[in-house]
Design goal:
Layout lengths: L1 H21 L1 E4 L4 E2 L2 E4 L4 E6 L8 E2 L3 E2 L8 E5 L4 E6 L7 E6 L1
Parallel strand pairs: 1-4, 3-9
Antiparallel strand pairs: 1-2, 4-7, 5-6, 8-9
Bound molecules: copper (II) ion (CU).
Copper (II) ion (CU) binds next to loops.
Length: 101
């Protein structure tokens, strides 16, 4: 019985860690990595600027963040279900796809 409890705790921690990784996006080399993620409605993504210059994020008609310098984060909650293109005003070629279930 004790073994099962330990295993259950381990699985819970592992699943939680995986979910957190799934909600992290890096802006590096004028690109979003990963370029596509799937999250649940009401969840937030954390965008980290890993370049040496400014980035920001926006989705047409939904949000338009402030500009952020190197090593700064943007936390953005997605309240509507659907598929969205996240982009950066400063670098028009930067784009990623977020699926919200
Ligand atoms: Cu940018």
């Amino acid at each position: 019985m004790k073994t099962y409890l330990v295993l259950a705790c381990f699985l819970t921690v592992a699943l939680t860690a995986h979910a957190a990784d799934n909600r992290r996006v890096v802006q590096k080399g004028r690109a979003f990595r990963p370029a596509e993620v799937t999250i649940m409605r009401g969840e937030a993504l954390t965008f980290t600027n890993d370049d040496s210059f400014i980035h920001q994020i926006y989705v047409d008609g939904q949000f338009d963040s402030e500009e952020k310098g190197p090593d700064e984060n943007i936390n953005q909650t997605f309240l509507r279900a659907g598929t969205f293109q996240v982009r950066c005003h400063i670098h028009p070629t930067m784009k990623m796809t977020v699926h919200v279930r």
